[in-house]
Specification:
Elements (H helix, E strand, L loop, with lengths): L2 E6 L4 H12 L6 E8 L2 E8 L2 H10 L7 E7 L14 E2 L5 E9 L2 H10 L11 H12 L4 H9 L4 E9 L5 E7 L4 E5 L2 E5 L11 E4 L4 E6 L7 E5 L8 E4 L15 H7 L1 H9 L18 H6 L2 E6 L1 H18 L3 E5 H4 L10 E7 L5 H12 L3 E6 L5 H4 L3 E4 L12 H21 L4 H23 L2 H9 L5 E6 L3 H16 L2 E6 L16 E5 L7 H16 L3 E7 L11 E5 L8 H18 L18
Parallel strand pairs: 15-16, 15-17, 17-18, 18-19, 20-21, 20-22, 22-23, 23-24
Antiparallel strand pairs: 1-4, 1-10, 2-3, 2-4, 5-6, 6-7, 7-8, 8-12, 9-10, 9-11, 11-14, 12-13
This protein binds 5-amino-5-deoxy-1-O-phosphono-D-mannitol.
Keywords: Aminotransferase, Cytoplasm, Glutamine amidotransferase, Repeat, Transferase
Function: Catalyzes the first step in hexosamine metabolism, converting fructose-6P into glucosamine-6P using glutamine as a nitrogen source.
Subunit structure: Homodimer.
Length: 619
Amino acid sequence: MCGIVGYVGSQSALDVVLAGLKRLEYRGYDSAGVAVLADGGLASARKAGKLANLEKELVERPLPAGATGIGHTRWATHGGPTDVNAHPHLDNAGRVAVVHNGIIENFAELRAELAERGHVLESETDTEVVAHLLAEEFSGCAGLAEAMRLVCRRLEGAFTLVAVHADEPDVVVGARRNSPLVVGVGEDEAFLASDVAAFIAHTRSAIELGQDQVVELRRDGVGDGVTVTDFDGRPAEVRSYHVDWDASAAEKGGYDYFMLKEIAEQPKAVADTLLGRIGVDGALTLDELRIPAAVLKEVDKVVIVACGTAFHAGLIAKYAIEHWTRIPCEVELASEFRYRDPILGGRSLVIAISQSGETMDTLMALRHARDQGATVLAICNTNGSTIPRESDAVLYTHAGPEVAVASTKAFLTQLVACYLVALYLGQVRGTKWGDEIRAVIRDLADISGEVERVLETMEPVRTLARSLSDKRTVLFLGRHVGYPVALEGALKLKELAYMHAEGFAAGELKHGPIALIEDDVPVVVIVPSPKGRSVLHDKIVSNIQEIRARGARTIVIAEEGDEAVVPYADHLVRIPATPTLLQPLVAAVPLQVFACELATARGNEVDQPRNLAKSVTVE
Ligand code: M6R
C-alpha cells in the first residue's frame, strides 16, 4: 500500500517521479504528492484524490525544475485522504521532505516529544513525525543518510521512507523495514521505488534492499553513488538483478483496463509458469526449489498460508496435494495463522502464496512458521520481494507484472505452481508413478490452449453480466475444487462491482444459505465434470434443481458435452473438459470476465476499486 518514488540524475525529477507514480497508482490512490529540490530550496505539491488531481494542480501551480525529487501515492492509514494528510510531509522550516509507506507504531509518543520541543505538526499522519525528526538529526550529523539511520533506530513498526533535504540537493535517501523498496541503477541516474514498474522505462538494473537498511543515492558518480548500510551505518551486502520484463509489460497495451489485458494474458502466463520445469523425459525438474529431497521425503504436514485470491489458490491446492501425495494439508488465512498457535515442527512444509511477495499478513505468518522450525516455500510472482527473500525456497510464477487490483493471471499461475509442487512432492516421495506425473503435466500443458478457447467464447458472459447490473446479490456455488472457485468468483464481484456476493459449498446450502434464494436471484453454479467424480456431478445437478425450484436464476458453468445440466440452466456457460483437479484453471476465467463486465456496467473503476490497494503491506 502506498507507492513511493525517488529520483536523482539529470532528467526532470518531476517528470520521472510523476511517470513512476502513474505506474504505482495501483498501490493506493487516496492522494498523491511530489517534492523537488531546485534553486537551493525544496518545492512540493500534494493533493487528495487520484494522481490526476495532483497533475492538474501542477499545471495551475508549476514547481521549479530540478533533477532530484520524490513522490508518493497514498492508501490512507493514519488520517483521512485529505490534502493536509497527503505526502510528502515537511519539517517546519520546509527543508526536509519525506514520503512513507507502512505504519509507525510509536508515532503518538514521538509526536508528543516533538510538540514539547516546539515543533508544530499539521497532519493526522504518523509520517509527519519523521520529517521533523530528520530535520532535528540533520542539524547535528554528517548528512541526510546518517540522520535517516538515527531516526530509523527510534521508529517502531513497518516503514519504507524516502527523503530529500534542501541542503543536499544531489542526494535522495531511503530506508526500509518490513515494507518494500527497490533501487534502480541507470546511466548517471538512480531511482528508488516500491516496485520496479516505477523505473522500468529507464533501467532494468535493480538492487534488492534487505531489512533494516538505509540507501543513499548521489548524483556524483551514481552507480558508485549507491551506498547501502544497516541502521548502524555498517556497509551492507547488496544483490543486483536484471528485471526480466520491459516497460511494455506494464502498459495497458490497447486495452481499456489492465484487468482486461491481464485476463487476456492468462494463456501465456500459464504456459510461462510451466516453462523450463519439465525435463526431456517428462519428469519435473524443480531444482530451483533448493529444498533437499531428503527434507521433502520427511514432510508430515503441509500448511498453506495466503490471503484473498492467493488463499483461494491454496484451497484448491489442498485437493491436489492430499490426492497426489497423501500428506495432510491445511490451508489458513495468513492473517489468522499465527494467532491460533498452530502446531508446526521441523517436518512441516509451509507454503506461502503471494503475487506481490509483500503482503504483510503472509509475511508475518511465514516468519512465525520459520520460528517454529518449519521449512517455508514461497510461491510468488515478484522477483526479489520480501516473502521469497525470507523463505527457505521459492517457486516463481511467471505471470509478468499484474497491475489491476483484482488478481487474475496471478491466480491461474499460482494454481499451476501449486500443482507443480504437489506433483513434485509426489515424484520425490514416490506416491505418484512417473507416467501418472507425465500425464498430468501433459494435461497442464494443454490448459493454456483451453484458457484461450474460453476467452474466445466470452461475449454471452459479457452480455449476461450487463443485464444483471441492477441486481443486489449474486451467489456462487461449487463442490470439491469448484467450491474455492465459487469463493473466488464472489470475491471478484465484491471487490469490483461492490455487490453482495457470496460463495458456498453447494452441499452447505440446505444448512442455511438456501434461505437467501428468492425470485430471480442470480446463482452461478460451477459444475464438476460428469466424467470424473460422477457422484459430485449428480449431487450438484440436484442442488441446481433445488435452487431453481425456489426461484433462482441459474447461471451454470459446465463442461462441453455435459447435457444433464441443460434443462436446469437459465444461462449456460461452456468450458472445455479437463481432469477434475485442473478444472479451476478454466472455470475461473468466465467469473473474472463476468465481474469485470458487471463492474464496468455499473460505472466502477475496474483497475482501482474503492478502498483497496494492490499490495497490502499493513496487518
Ligand atoms: O499479493 P498477494 O497475492 O499476497 O495478495 C493477496 C490478496 O491481497 C489479493 O489476492 C487480493 O485478494 C486481490 N485483490 C483479489 O483480487
